[in-house]
Specification:
Distance between the termini: 28 Å
Largest sheet: 7 strands, mixed
Number of strands: 19
Number of helices: 9
Order of helices and strands: EHEEHEHEEHEEEHEHEEEHEEEEHEEH
Structural class: alpha/beta
Oligomer: single chain
Radius of gyration: 23 Å
Helix content: 25-40%
Strand content: 25-35%
Length: 352
């Protein structure tokens, strides 16, 4: 069935924030920039949007500022095999179809072409921590089993992975891990396949990677078990693969306002400037990662390792590390105030 092109077409003068709205509405991770005659001028993907956010580009700017002016297209006579070949070669998940005059007539999606193939994607959820900052709530149960919105945090994460067609899941467990095993078992009840990586000691946020079976040879999604987000995980994986990154770290914008006037001094200790309660902008680690298989070889066997240490090791080896900005809802449930906020937010972001 031909695509509803109205969901994808935008003009070059459309503001970037309007393109974001259209991408979110069509759920296909891109839009096509066309002129008044439907001739393709460029494309804008979800990845292009996130790179613009990293560069702090004003989202009121026209979308032509960030579009790819030389997108891949395919003709009307191309069969499915040829279309898949082009998509795989250039690592793209959407391909506009054009007529002999270069005008948009349809669009085809990798997800549709491969709908009948079993997903090979794997995820590893790090659920072995003790959750000490949430005591006494975690005295009798592990933090991932705390209820937010009347269900365990971990259950919401697993449901989202399934909705994102990630059905092969490893869960690293340690502290009160038996409760997690007893609740989720092999995952059948949740429409996924679950295997457990059992830590016999504290292994940090990356040590459990050394416990993975040898057959994992595809990109691995790694995420902490104490966060809730509306991020589409396939968008992160697509960003990782099209960017040819060895590892990709999801990051979240964070603003911190200094509660005082900040005074600048020169070398003679004279006051040169006073900034009243300035706001500093940062990107913080969101606890979600995409790792290429080669990254796992940097993890020492059965030893403590935090994932930030792994990232530093990769950078020292000049491996390519990407940053994927999360613009969707995200909360790290580290402290009591976060737990309370997550419960307040749940009905807004996670229920129909």
């Amino acid at each position: 069935m031909p695509a509803n092109l109205s969901l994808f077409k935008i003009s070059p003068s459309t503001p970037i924030f309007k393109a974001i709205q259209k991408i979110d509405k069509n759920s296909r991770e891109f839009v096509i920039v066309v002129d008044k005659n439907f001739k393709i001028l460029g494309t804008v993907t979800d990845g292009d949007i996130r790179r613009a956010i990293l560069k702090a580009i004003d989202l009121k700017q026209p979308v032509k500022k960030i579009m790819n002016p030389h997108p891949k297209t395919i003709g009307l006579d191309a069969d499915q095999a040829k279309t898949l070949q082009v998509m795989k070669k250039f690592k793209i998940r959407q391909l506009p179809i054009v007529n002999s005059e270069g005008r948009l007539v349809d669009v085809v999606f990798m997800d549709d072409l491969m709908a009948n193939l079993q997903s090979r994607a794997y995820a590893l959820i790090m659920a072995g921590g003790q959750g000490t900052r949430l005591r006494p709530l975690t005295n009798d149960k592990p933090k991932p089993m705390l209820s937010v919105g009347e269900k365990p945090i971990l259950e919401t994460i697993i449901n989202q992975l399934r909705e994102n067609d990630i059905r092969n899941i490893f869960i690293a467990i340690n502290y009160k891990g038996k409760q997690i095993e007893n609740h989720f078992k092999n995952g059948d009840r949740f429409g996924v396949n679950i295997e457990y990586l059992k830590e016999t000691k504290k292994m940090g946020t990356a040590g459990a990677l050394s416990l993975l079976p040898k057959h994992i040879n595809d990109t691995l999604l790694v995420l902490n078990a104490d966060l809730l987000t509306r991020l589409n995980f396939q968008r992160l994986l697509s960003f990782h693969e099209t960017g040819n990154y060895d590892a990709t770290m999801a990051v979240k914008e964070f603003d911190y306002q200094v509660p005082y006037g900040v005074v600048s001094l020169d070398k003679n200790q004279n006051v040169t400037q006073i900034d009243e309660k300035p706001v500093h902008h940062f990107f913080v680690n969101a606890g979600i990662y995409a790792l290429s298989p080669s990254c796992i070889s940097y993890v020492p066997k059965n030893k403590f390792l935090d994932i930030t240490q792994l990232m530093v090791s990769l950078m020292k080896k000049n491996r390519k590390i990407g940053a994927f900005p999360v613009r969707e809802y995200w909360i790290d449930i580290g402290m009591h105030k976060d737990f309370e906020k997550a419960n307040e937010d749940f009905s807004i972001h996670f229920e129909p």
